[in-house]
Design brief:
By secondary structure, the protein is α/β, with parallel strands linked by helices. About 40% of the residues lie in helices and about 15% in strands. It has a single domain, classed as Decaprenyl diphosphate synthase-like (Undecaprenyl pyrophosphate synthetase, 3-Layer(aba) Sandwich).
């Protein structure tokens, strides 16, 4: 893969880096198919161009100081798409893992994956697991790919784990709390999600990080994912920085110096 050229920061990037950033950003990457259709191209070409946005947004997130970036790459429901499209997406995923491997390792990024990863074809699982293992001790940004992922499926799995632990006598159901459930989610160990971005003009969550986005700020943009590059991403970060996050408190409480900070957002 070509190494990135030195990028001179824009005025917006300088501004964004000077203010508090979201620790964890989740992105619903939507609009690849429409991007291709508008150009009279096969849908797979939209997905291919979308992979360029993945690369650029990942670089930008790491450069400005985002701690964790989670990308909704393939949902549990996407398996129902035409077989040809699914096969093409799996091929692109394998290509991505192979082409981005050096840059991920060279920049100290830790690759993570959430979802029913065991459902992925072997030719995708193997390079995915290799890169996860080889980057496991990296201390830079955590890049999480949500693959064969669904928020309801994640919660159901966690609920089953809790029920089994209770049946074994390891947990008292009367004393279960949020931490017990969170520790069984695929995202366990990641910072709380601060910002969710959705591209393509759609304004829905689509079964993404349902538990984790409880107090997340939302940024909806009309840009189709293949057109969503550095400046669009920076604009979403800037929007986040202009929001007042209250976590159920009043504005007056949030702005008081003696108000305890919420430990988990």
């Amino acid at each position: 893969m070509d190494r990135p050229l030195t990028v001179l920061p824009t005025a917006l990037e300088v501004q964004v880096k000077a203010r508090p950033l979201p620790r964890h950003v989740g992105i619903i990457m939507d609009g690849n198919g429409r991007w291709a259709e508008l150009r009279g191209q096969p849908r797979l070409e939209g997905h291919r161009e979308g992979s360029v946005s993945v690369r650029e947004v990942t670089r930008t997130a790491r450069r400005v100081g985002v701690q964790a970036l989670t990308l909704y790459a393939f949902s549990s429901q996407n398996w129902a798409r035409p077989a040809e499209e699914v096969a093409g997406l799996m091929d692109l995923l394998r290509e991505y893992l192979e082409s981005e491997r050096a840059e991920i390792l060279d920049n100290g990024i830790r690759l993570n994956a959430i979802g029913e990863v065991d459902k992925l074809p072997r030719y995708v699982r193997e390079p995915l697991e290799r890169l996860r293992a080889d980057s496991a001790h990296n201390t830079g940004m955590v890049l999480t790919l949500a693959l064969s992922y669904g928020g309801r499926e994640e919660l159901l799995r966690a609920a089953r784990d809790l029920a089994q632990a209770a049946a074994r006598g390891e947990l008292d159901p009367a004393h279960l709390d949020a931490d017990d459930l969170e520790s069984r989610l695929w995202t366990a160990g990641l910072p709380p999600v601060d910002l969710i971005v959705r591209t393509s003009g759609e304004q829905r969550i689509s079964n993404f990080l349902l538990w984790q986005l409880a107090y997340a700020e939302l940024c909806f943009t009309d840009a189709l994912w293949p057109d969503f590059r550095t400046e669009e991403f920076l604009r979403c970060l800037s929007q986040f920085q202009g929001r007042e996050r209250r976590f159920g408190l009043t504005s007056a409480q949030v702005n008081r110096d003696d108000t305890p900070q919420r430990a988990k957002a």
